[in-house]
Amino acid sequence: MNIAATMDNWRISDEDAETWLSEIEATAQDTGAYFRISADHAAIFHEGYGAAATSLLITFESMDQACHRPHRLPIGLDLCTSDDPSRLVIVAKGRTWFRDAALTTFFTSLHDDQFFSDFERHVFYGAAMGGYGAACYSRYAPDSVVITTEPVATLAPLKAPWEKRFPDQRRRDFNTTDSYAPECAATAASCIILHRDSRAEDVMHASLFNSACQHRLPLRFLRQSAEEHLEGSGALEHIISAALMVCPGDEDLLLLKRRVELESLQALRLRRTYEPYLRYLFARLNRDDRSGLLRRLYRHGESVDSVKEFFQRKRQKSEHSD
User: In this predicted structure, which of 142-156, 215-229, 259-273 has the lowest mean pLDDT?
Assistant: First the structure.
C-alpha cells in the first residue's frame, strides 16, 4: 500500500476537519482537556483511571485518517480499552509532518511545567508521519518507550535521497536539531520499529534507526498497511499495553529494552489467527508453488475458526487436482 496515495485518498476538507475537532473538543471536556495548538495541530488529553492513570500514552495521528476510523476517534483514544491509561493525542491536519514551531513550544511548555514527571511511564506511538512525530518528540520524555510502524527517519534530501514518495513535503525544514527521528528517539529506553520488509523505503528508513535502544522488527506478507495489519490482528494493542506496564525505574534499561522487544515478538504471533494475514499468506505460497509450506498452512488454517472452511475447500481442491 502506497502511504502517500493513502494520505491523499483520505484527505478531508477544512470544514470537515473543523467539525471533527468540535466533536473531539466536546468529548475531551468530559474526561480531560482540549488544546488548539495552531491552525494545523491540536491536542486531546484524557485523564486515566485507577492504577493505569500513572501511564501516559502519547500518539501522533492524522485527523484525516482519524475521521475514517470507527466512532471517528483517533487510535490513541481507541486502544488499550482493558485498562484506562492517561492519553495525550496530537492530531495534524494534512501532511504537516508535525514540523510546527507552535507544537515545539507546546511540548517545551509541557516539559518545563513538569507535566511528564506526573507519570511513571511514557509510551510514544505513531505510524508513518505519526511515527516520525512520535520519535522526534519522544526526546521530551527520556527513557520512554517509542513504538513506530512504517517508519520515516527524515525527509531531508541529503539524508534520504532515495525517498521520492513525498516530493512536496521535502521543502520543509528537516535539518534542525529536533528533526532527525533516529537521533531524537535515541534517548528512549526502548524504540521498536515495525516495518514491512517488502517495501524498500520502509527498510531503508528503518536501517537509520541503529542506536543501542532501537530494535527493528520486519513484517512479512502484508497486504494492508502495517498499522492496519497490527491493529486488526490485536498485536498493536498488546504491544502498547505491554509497554505501558513497564517502568524504567524498576530495572536496568537494557533489561527493559529486551523485555519490550520480547513482548513485541510474542504479540506478532497473534497474526496466526488473523484472517486477512492467513488468506494473503496462502495466496503468496500458492503463487510461489511452495507445496510443503502450503500443507502446513492448511493444517494450521483448519484449526482457526474464521478461516476453517476456506482452508478446507482449498485443501480438497489441491488434493483433487493432484
Answer: 259-273
Number of other residues whose CB lies within 10 A of the CB of residue 175: 12
Q: Which residue has the cell 514518495?
A: 165
**What is the distance of C-alpha 184 from the center of its chain?**
17
Q: For the segment 45-100, what is each residue's pLDDT rounded down to a tens digit? A: 999 988 888 999 999 999 988 888 878 889 998 886 667 899 999 999 989 999 99
pLDDT beyond 50 at 6: no
Is the pLDDT at 5 greater than 60? The verdict is no
The answer to whether 307 and 279 have CB atoms below 8 angstroms apart is: yes
Q: Which of 67, 114, 117, 122 is nearest to 92 (CA)?
A: 67
Sign of the C-alpha dihedral computed for residues 260, 3, 297 and 302 taken in this order: positive
Q: Cα(44)–Cα(146) distance, rounded to whole angstroms?
A: 19
Question: CB within 8 A of 293, min separation 6: which ones?
Answer: 285
Classified as helix, coil or strand, 281 is helix
Q: What DSSP line would sit under 309-320, residue for residue? A: HHHHHHHHHHHH
Strands (E), 1-159: 32-36, 41-46, 55-62, 86-92, 121-127, 145-149
Q: Does position 161 have pLDDT exceeding 50, yes or no?
A: yes
- Residue 98 region by backbone torsions, left for phi larger than 0, else alpha for psi between -120 and 50, else beta: left
- pLDDT for residue 72: 85
Q: Are 197 and 206 in contact (CB under 8 A)?
A: no
The CA distance from 299 to 283, in Å, is 16
What's the one-letter identity of residue 233?
S
Residue pair 77/46 in contact by the 8 Å Cβ criterion: yes
CA dist 78 and 192 (Å) reads 21
Distance CA 56, CA 144 (A): 10
8-55 pLDDT tens trace: 445 677 788 888 888 888 888 777 899 999 999 999 999 998 888 899
User: What mean pLDDT is reported for the chain?
Assistant: 86
- Element (H or E) spanning 215, and its range? strand 214-219
